[in-house]
Amino acid sequence: MNSRSFRSTTVARGLLAGLLAALLIGACADPNASSTASKASNQRVSDGSSGQTSVPDQPMSELDWSDCNVGRDTECATLQVPLDWEEPTGPKIGLALVRVLATGDRIGSLIGNPGGPGGSGLEFLGSDPFSQQLTRRFDTVSWDPRGVGKSTPVTCSDSVPDLLALDPDPDDSSEQAALDQAGETVSQECADSDLSLLEHISTVDVAKDLEAIRVALGDEPLNFLGFSYGTQIGQAYADLYPTKIRSMVLDGVVDPSLGFTEFLLGQTAAFDASFEENVSRCSEAGRDECGVRDLGEAYDQVHSLVEVAPMGSGDGELGPGELATAAIMTAYYEDGWQDLGPALAAGLEGDGSELRALADQYYDFGGYTAYAGVVCTDTPPPDSPAAYRRFADEARKVSPRFGGSVANELLPCATWPVEAAATAKAVTAPGAPPILVVGNTRDPATPYDNAVTVSESLESGVLVTAEISGHTAYGTNQCVTEIVDDYLINLAVPQVDPRCT
Asked: The AB hydrolase-1 domain covers which part of the protein (predicted)?
């Protein structure tokens, strides 16, 4: 579980829904994408992306904006870009863009990305994620990254539900064999679907697309606000084009210096800590408000029940994997215990529907394969089922409750048909203007240490600390929102690293 969340009465939850959605939008631009499908053997191919290819200074194609039914006052367009940036005259794919024009004195365009990998920028912008201060001064823009939604989506998700329905903590060799086979089935389905697309959906590819979008919008310096995995896109862009930036905010930070296993182990620890915080808050609130006396005990009791036999049936079935996902889902927002407690209380009575509904807020099987396609190839994962089992065992030591679920969600990476594009590395971005790096001290998905490390690695990084729970802070914490707005509009850079509560 990366910073993606397919993942509602408060502003915080409204933004969360936008950040975590990887939903397909119906009424918008048609990318008319073209790519060459190819069948794969069991051998991996190399991801051809590199940081060396330049993006032309002239637009790759003209943007023909038209009204679209994505959100209030939205317009959509499609930008044609090379499938392979190292072959700029080769096959093209379409990137689906959405914008809302500034309502006041315009500074330029502000491009936002909600995270993922697999998050839809169209859905994100349609959820009104930015303050009125920003929408007055900027044309707000987002896009479905390549492989996602309306931008030449990766379409190999038929076998994903079977994988995610299995127990992520196998009890015996037959259960482990079934899990391994399900992971291989997903990776083979994707290899057979469109290998040429999978070879070119890395974060570096997306960063080059972002530069092409900037040029197509009028070649103004980039203003960028990236959430969660969007912070990795922002850092990749800053690494390639540091002098093309006017302002950049990274909120809910992914540390690109961490490898595949390092990141997921850190995330596992953060999810576990967030769950324990929910346990404490439930105890403080009491059973009448929380629904159960002890959230941890209730979770473990429901887990024991679904280990014996799942609750419900069909698409509404609740097994160990869905239970863990429900708990992880509620870690993403500060009052998650208020949803998890009553759902666990119902589970203790044999009704798993509320817990399954929480898990379903996280799941989007169509977005999963874009997510896996990026994560499996950005940095090297364990490269065999046996190596992956050792990693999953390590994750369970970090969190007996959630380690198996976090690790095995990405089990297809062990047999993914495309090799990793690069190894992990820190980004320094010499020559970039000040970049705001926002981190929540109790973020369950992108641990606070990530923000500290990235702010120190960037030559112009400025750390903004939010002493809060939940994933990302802009739009949920007034102090952070005011600092970010002032920076984006006025280029006001805090003189010292501010702390918000």
From this structure: 113-284
Helix extents (H) in 295-441: 295-308, 320-330, 337-348, 353-362, 365-378, 385-398, 403-408
Checking phi first, is residue 170 left (phi over 0); if not, alpha (psi -120 to 50) or beta?
beta
Residue 57 exposed, middle or buried by CB count within 10 Å (0-12, 13-18, 19+)? exposed
Write the pLDDT tens digit of every residue in 380-396: 999 999 999 999 999 99
The encoded tokens of residue 220 equal 């103004």
Q: Any residues with CB less than 8 A from the CB of 286 and at least 6 apart, and which?
A: none
Q: What angle do CA 58, 52, 34 make, to 5 degrees?
A: 60
108-113, strands of its sheet edge to edge:
66-67, 75-82, 92-100, 138-143, 108-113, 222-227, 245-251, 435-442, 461-469, 499-500
Residue 111's SS3 state is strand
- Whether residue 30 lies in the annotated active site: no
Catalytic: 239?
no
Alpha-carbon gap, residue 233 to 228, rounded angstroms: 9
Distance CA 102, CA 156 (A): 38
Among candidate residues 5, 120, 228, 455, the one labeled active-site is: 228
Question: In 3D, which of 16, 4, 7 has the Cα closest to residue 363?
Answer: 7
Would you call 471 a catalytic residue per the annotation?
yes
| Six-digit token string for 129 | 């994620």
**Radius of gyration (Cα) for the chain, nearest Å?**
22
Question: Are the C-beta atoms of residues 378 and 203 closer than 8 Å to each other?
Answer: yes
Answer whether 0.85 is exceeded by the pTM.
yes
Q: Which two tokens stand for residue 5?
A: 């969340």
- Checking DSSP bridges between strand 92-100 and strand 75-82, what pairing results, if any? antiparallel
Among residues 144, 180, 239, 443, which one is catalytic?
443
Q: What are phi and psi of 207, to 5 degrees?
A: -65, -40
Domains of the chain, earliest start first: 11-149+202-257+426-500 (3.40.50.1820), 286-362 (no CATH)
User: Got the DSSP string for 41-76?
Assistant: -SS-B-----S-PPPPSS-SS----EE-TTSTT-EE
Write out the DSSP string of 166-206: S-SS-SSHHHHHHHHHHHHHHHHHHHHHHHHHHTT-SHHHH
C-alpha of 308 from chain center = 33
| First-residue to last-residue Cα distance in the chain | 27
Average pLDDT over residues 8-22: 35
d(CA 61, CA 82): 11
- Give 96's strand partners: 78
From CA 364, how far away is CA 422, in angstroms rounded?
27
